[in-house]
């Protein structure tokens, strides 16, 4: 067990290094030469490097140190170590790649935004998926969300709004708008890397025909189902609540199956960030 854990941690460490290198390449070969920045601490570091002439790698590492400490206190030692490795790899990679050939020029703004956002998103997504982080602003947002009545996403958006506003004074309004678009693309790519293309859905069905619906889902969709006991709030009658996890491509077929059996069934479908364990892999159906 200990050996397996060591191997798994080593694999994650290697993937974090690879993710950091990909993100650094996106910064140095695409974004920075074209005056396009990322959000968070990375964006602040790029602006600082432009204003004060300090190497980007140095600013990335120094400015993230307080957030690594916060992560250690709030999340744990493993997260802090993995994040330290990722941030160190990002810092070193930006220094080593500083003179790398720029792959796109200023006449290709759309390609700059798309390729830069995708490279950043893939790199950061790999790091996050393996238990680390490349930017301390997310750690700060998690901490602040516990103190003020705003979500993590709202806080990150608020922080980045000020960063891109600052970028408009340093690099110009056009570059700031391209930076915001790059951040949006990177964020969506990160979601795909973390969650996967086949995003999972949790389905709950309340119906007098729960057994029949469950049998049909298993026979026609190849998914397993679970039943829990419930009681109607108005009728005060006992009922079975059916639960099933599917991927998003199966949602329409599932709804169709339920309607064929009970059009009045109460159905709740919600997104699932991750599925582990059990037997989620569907069996073959014909």
TrEMBL record:
InterPro entries: DUF2179, N-reg_PII/ATP_PRibTrfase_C, UPF0750_membrane, YitT. The keyword Lyase does not apply. The keyword Hydrolase does not apply. PANTHER family: UPF0750 MEMBRANE PROTEIN YDEO, UPF0750 MEMBRANE PROTEIN YITT-RELATED. Keywords: Cell membrane, Membrane, Transmembrane, Transmembrane helix. The chain crosses the membrane at residues 12-32, 52-72, 79-98, 110-128, 148-173. Residues 223-277 form the DUF2179 domain. It is found in: Cell membrane. This is YitT family protein. It is a multi-pass membrane protein.
């Amino acid at each position: 067990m200990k050996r397996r854990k060591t191997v798994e941690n080593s694999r994650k460490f290697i993937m974090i290094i690879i993710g950091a290198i990909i993100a650094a390449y996106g910064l140095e070969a695409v974004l920075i030469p074209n005056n396009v920045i990322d959000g968070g601490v990375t964006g602040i570091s790029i602006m600082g490097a432009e204003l004060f002439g300090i190497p980007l790698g140095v600013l990335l590492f120094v400015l993230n140190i307080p957030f690594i400490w916060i992560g250690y206190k709030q999340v744990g030692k493993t997260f802090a170590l993995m994040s330290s490795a990722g941030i160190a790899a990002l810092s070193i990679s930006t220094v080593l790649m500083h003179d790398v050939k720029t792959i796109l020029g200023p006449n290709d703004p759309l390609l700059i935004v798309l390729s830069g956002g995708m490279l950043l998103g893939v790199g950061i997504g790999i790091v996050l998926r393996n238990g680390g982080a490349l930017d301390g602003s997310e750690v700060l947002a998690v901490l602040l969300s516990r103190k003020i009545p705003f979500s993590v996403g709202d806080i990150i958006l608020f922080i980045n709004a000020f960063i891109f506003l600052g970028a408009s004074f340093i690099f110009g309004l056009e570059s700031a708008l391209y930076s915001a678009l790059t951040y949006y693309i990177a964020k969506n790519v990160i979601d795909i890397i973390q969650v996967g293309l086949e995003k999972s859905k949790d389905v709950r069905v309340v119906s007098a025909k729960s057994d029949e619906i469950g049998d049909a889902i298993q026979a026609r969709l190849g998914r397993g189902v679970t039943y829990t006991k419930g009681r109607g709030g108005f009728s005060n009658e006992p009922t079975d609540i059916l639960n099933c996890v599917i991927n998003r491509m199966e949602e329409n077929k599932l709804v169709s199956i339920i309607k064929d059996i009970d059009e009045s069934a109460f159905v709740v479908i919600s997104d699932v960030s991750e599925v582990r364990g059990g037997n989620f892999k569907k069996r073959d159906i014909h």
